[in-house]
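Design request, C-alpha cells follow.
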C-alpha cells in the first residue's frame, strides 16, 4: 500500500480516457481520496479501488460551462466555484498532496491549495491551445500552474509543447506516456464478428466518445464514397455533445449509410470489438493529446489510420506503426482505408512492429512507476 495520502480531484463523474488513467493510478492507494465535482460512474469505480469518495454539493453540471464563456456569463457561477474551492481546501487538509486530473479540477484545486497549504500535482490530459480552450482559460491555467504546481504530468511531447508555448514553465513538465494493458486472448476477426453479430463485409471502426473534435463526421464523409465498406461507431457523447451525436445519426440517414454504419453506443469491450475490424480509424480534427485508442489498436493487432496531429505521429512513429493522414480530409481518409483493406504484404510487418512498439513504450507498469516517482518526490520535496 502506498503511504501517501493523496486527494485526487476530477471535475467529471463520467469515465473518459483521463479517468481510465486515473483508475489505474489509484490502485493500491487506499489511504487516498477522490474529490469529484459530480456523481456518475467514476465514483463507484474509484470506490471499488478502495478510495474514500467525496462528492461536491455544488459541482453538478459544471462541465456544461462552455469554454468560450465570458467573465460576464460566468458571474452566476462564481458562488458555486467559491463553495467548491472551500470543499477541496477542507478535504485537502487531511491529505499530503492534491492531484488534479483535469483542467477544471486543476484551476479550483490550485486556488484551494493556497488555503490548504498542500503541494499540488496537475495531470494535464489536454493540449492547451486555442483549439481546445478559450484565451481566458489558457491564461488562468498557465498562471496557476506556474505559481502553484509542483509538477505538471503530460502524456506526450505534443501536450508538453503546447503547455510551454502557452507560457507554462518547462521545468514543471514530466512527460509520462499513457500505459495500456494487453487485450484478452486473440480470436479471429471472423469468430468475433459472428459472436458480436457484426457484418462480414470489410469493416472499419472508430472507438472514441462522440465529440466534434474527435472527427467521426469525417469518417462518415469518407464512407459515403466507399459503398462496399461497413463501419462500427463505438462510443457515446460523454461530455455534453449530444447535439453532435444527433447530427452524426442524421448524417448517416441523409447519406444513405444506415445499412452499413452501426452505432454501438458506449461499450466496455472495446479491445474485443477492435480485434473484429479490419482497421481502426482515429479521425480527430484537432491535435490529440495522446489517444489511448491508438495504442489499444496497436496492442490488438489492428491496422491504425490516424490524423497526423498531436501525439499520433509520435505514437505511430511517423507512419512506421500505422497510417497517418491529414486532419479533416475525407478523400485522404478514404484512400487510406482502401489501401489498408487491400491488405498489402507490408501490413503484416507494420502490425508486428506496432504491437512490439506499444508493449515496449506504453505499458501500464512503466506509467505507474513514473507517476509514483512524481508523487513521492512531491511529498518529500515540496512544502506549499
Ligand atoms: N472507450 C470505451 N468505450 C467506448 C468508447 C471508448 O471504453 O464505447 C474507451 C477507449 O477504449 C479508450 C478511452 O475510452 O480507452 C478513450 O480514451 P482516448 O484517450 O482515446 O480519448 P478521450 O476520450 O480520453 O479523449
Ligand atoms: C484526454 C485526451 C486523450 C488522452 C486521455 C488520457 O481525454 O483527450 O487524448 O489519451 O486524456 O490521457
Amino acid at each position: 500500500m502506498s503511504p501517501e495520502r493523496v486527494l485526487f480531484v476530477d471535475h467529471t463523474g463520467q469515465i473518459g480516457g483521463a479517468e481510465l488513467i486515473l483508475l489505474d493510478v489509484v490502485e493500491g492507494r487506499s489511504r487516498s481520496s477522490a474529490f469529484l465535482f459530480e456523481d456518475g460512474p467514476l465514483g463507484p469505480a474509484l470506490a471499488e479501488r478502495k478510495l474514500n469518495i467525496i462528492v461536491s454539493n455544488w459541482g453538478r453540471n459544471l462541465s456544461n460551462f462552455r469554454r468560450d464563456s465570458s467573465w460576464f456569463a460566468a458571474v452566476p457561477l462564481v458562488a458555486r466555484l467559491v463553495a467548491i474551492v472551500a470543499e477541496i481546501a477542507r478535504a485537502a487538509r487531511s491529505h499530503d498532496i492534491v492531484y488534479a486530473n483535469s483542467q477544471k479540477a486543476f484551476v479550483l484545486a490550485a486556488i484551494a491549495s493556497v488555503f490548504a497549504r498542500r503541494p499540488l500535482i496537475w495531470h494535464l490530459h489536454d493540449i492547451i491551445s486555442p483549439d481546445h480552450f478559450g484565451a481566458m482559460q489558457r491564461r488562468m491555467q498557465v498562471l496557476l500552474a506556474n505559481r502553484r504546481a509542483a509538477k505538471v504530468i503530460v502524456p506526450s511531447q505534443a501536450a508538453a509543447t503546447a503547455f510551454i508555448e502557452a507560457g507554462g514553465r518547462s521545468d514543471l513538465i514530466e512527460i509520462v506516456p499513457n500505459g495500456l494493458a494487453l487485450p484478452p486472448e486473440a480470436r479471429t476477426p471472423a469468430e468475433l464478428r459472428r459472436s458480436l453479430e457484426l457484418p462480414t463485409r470489410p469493416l472499419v471502426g472508430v472507438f472514441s466518445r462522440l465529440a466534434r473534435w474527435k472527427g467521426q463526421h469525417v469518417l462518415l464523409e469518407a464512407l459515403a464514397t466507399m459503398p462496399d465498406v461497413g463501419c462500427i461507431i463505438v462510443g457515446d457523447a460523454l461530455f455534453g455533445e449530444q447535439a453532435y451525436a444527433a447530427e452524426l445519426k442524421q448524417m448517416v440517414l441523409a447519406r444513405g449509410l444506415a445499412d452499413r454504419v452501426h452505432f454501438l453506443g458506449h461499450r466496455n469491450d472495446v479491445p474485443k470489438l477492435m480485434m473484429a475490424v479490419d482497421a481502426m480509424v482515429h479521425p480527430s480534427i484537432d491535435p490529440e493529446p495522446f489517444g489511448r485508442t491508438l495504442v489499444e489498436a496497436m496492442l490488438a493487432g489492428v491496422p491504425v489510420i490516424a490524423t497526423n496531429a498531436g501525439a499520433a505521429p509520435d505514437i505511430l512513429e511517423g507512419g512506421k506503426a500505422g497510417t497517418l493522414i491529414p486532419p479533416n480530409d475525407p478523400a485522404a481518409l478514404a484512400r487510406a482505408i482502401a489501401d489498408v483493406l487491400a491488405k498489402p504484404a507490408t501490413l503484416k510487418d507494420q502490425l508486428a512492429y506496432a504491437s512490439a512498439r506499444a508493449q515496449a513504450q506504453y505499458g501500464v507498469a512503466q506509467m505507474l512507476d513514473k507517476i509514483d516517482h512524481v508523487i513521492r518526490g512531491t511529498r518529500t520535496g515540496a512544502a506549499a
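Comment from the thread starter after seeing the answer: thanks! Residues 16-18, 21, 125, 155, 178, 288-292 surround alpha-D-glucopyranose (ligand 2) (CB under 6 Å).
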